[in-house]
Amino acid sequence: MATKLVEVIGQGSTGSVDLYLLCSLLSLLALYVFFLRPRTSTWKKSTSPSTSTLPPGPPRLPIIGNLHQFLVDHLPHRSLRRLSDRYGPLMYVQLGAARLLVVSSAEAAQQVLRTHDLAFSDRPPLRSPLRFSYGRRNLAGAPYGEEFTQTRKLVMSTLLGGKKHASLRPVREDEVGILVSAIARLSSGGPVNLTEMALCLFNNINRRVISGRRLSDYGDVCKSNPLHQMFLEVNDLIPGFSNSDLFPSMPWLDVLTGRHARIEKRFRDIDRFLEGEIDVNEADTDNDEMMDADGTDLEDDSNYVRTLLRLQKDPKLRLFLTRDRIKAIILASTSQIARTLGLDTACMQDMFIGGAQSSMASVEWAMAELMMKPEAMKKAQEEVRRVAGGKDRIDEDDLQKLEYMKLVMKETWRLHPTGPLLIPRQCREDCDVGGYTVPAGTLVHVNVWAIGRDPAYWRDPEVFRPERFEDVAVDYRGQNFVLIPFGSGRRMCPGMAPGVARLELALANLLLKFNWELPAGLEKHGLDMEEAFGISNRRRSPLVLKPTVAGPTPP
Ligand code: HEM
């Protein structure tokens, strides 16, 4: 158990065991037990301001605080829910030297993300995201302030907003078509690994919209591309606390455990890769300029890099849009959710890394839940096939008509939010919430996973039943705090529209083109529905299913 804790805290979800830190922690624990002294079960009163109180929380050990309590379930969002059941929806815990507010009810989330949005709109300067964001020059990791506001405006108006989103529609439709053809080609050979193929799809979409290139030509062999592996490793490195975040007085811990070297190596790799993506587009743009010297319009906004390079020529933006900022923005622009202790990571590194993994996780969870609920699968397929009305694919115009599928997505995000604890925020000033005072500098995690399974809001919360949303007007766009898979407020996900479009398009076409069965041997016990050990919300086992190409739909 202790071994796994260290993996979660120190290495991301798949990192190697941090033996040195483990030994240190255990020694500290042993010392503590040896010199055991009685403690109170609640937190001391805050001294700043003097009349205020901190929210309640579990008793903490010296130095490590409540780190050991994350061992309870191996999954931080589960462990935190268990603690919140005891200490309340506003709970204060300590991880090493880091102070953390954990929010576990819709009402408390509304207080933090809406009522006091401004006070909680910072992000913590954690070691690993700091490096991969070129010193917080991306959007997801930027401290709240003028630079953040400018970056967010720029990203929304030029990269993720309506016009650009619409112009990239052919990329999404094209890539989903390639995925479907790849699955059809492989289907005669038995079950396919849908997890891998979905990740490949979203990596291809990401790379095409960002820099105009693909990761794999075939839709099923991304795995053999070294870039794919690099993205996965960076995705695991970025989220999560480094040891030096938890024990700032022991910065050497990161060196001793090898984390510093891993971060630096992967940072160099990713920097080289991003330089290449920019160079290629820069060269193409220069060539275009030479050919169009007669004065025709030189604008080429066919991908994010080109848009940013064009904007860089604007004298008003030249100083702001440095090369490092361009790299930071494109690395981090997607989703999905960087998960520091539970954030999906997708989003801590804006575009390249996060988006693919979170989209992949949503597709695989939706498909897995539908496989376990044949009535829901039947309903979803009937709807998709009716809407297709004889066409051999669903396009983005059709998506609005897929009402049941939208319920399926809501129910999937309720049970399996891609960032179970959202991306951590940081409190910018002392703030009074729910009768307590949260001191400036406190990190904040909103446990959306716990809110999604709280019987106070949901009948039979553990049951996958998309129909529950037929009766309640609950949306996922940040207004209903019982369902906030994209967060809410000033730091809410800016990639929701492109994220949802690619997900729905992929899912609809998978349901249209294929009938799905469990592989032999699984019919009896069903799929493994456990989450992977770690901080993100991936499935523990890859989703392997047997597709059969469906016949044409009636016109
Ligand atoms: C299923 C898809 C996605 C989900 C579930 C998702 C979820 C989230 C969540 C929960 C946050 C944190 C919100 C908060 O702190 O309140 C976030 C932030 C963010 N997301 Fe996404 N996201 C998705 C897709 C995308 C895509 C496709 C992009 C970009 C192309 C993107 C870019 C970002 C960025 C840049 C942030 C940081 C915003 C900031 O700090 O101001 N996301 N996302």
From TrEMBL:
Co-factor requirement: heme
Gene3D superfamilies: Cytochrome P450 (1.10.630.10)
Positions of transmembrane segments: 19-36
Record: residues binding heme: 493
Keywords: Heme, Iron, Membrane, Metal-binding, Monooxygenase, Oxidoreductase, Transmembrane, Transmembrane helix
Example GO molecular function: iron ion binding
InterPro entries named in the record: Cyt_P450, Cyt_P450_CS, Cyt_P450_E_grp-I, Cyt_P450_sf
Highest taxon of source: Eukaryota
Stated family: Belongs to the cytochrome P450 family.
Annotated protein name in UniProt: Cytochrome P450
Species in which this protein is naturally found: Colocasia esculenta (Wild taro)
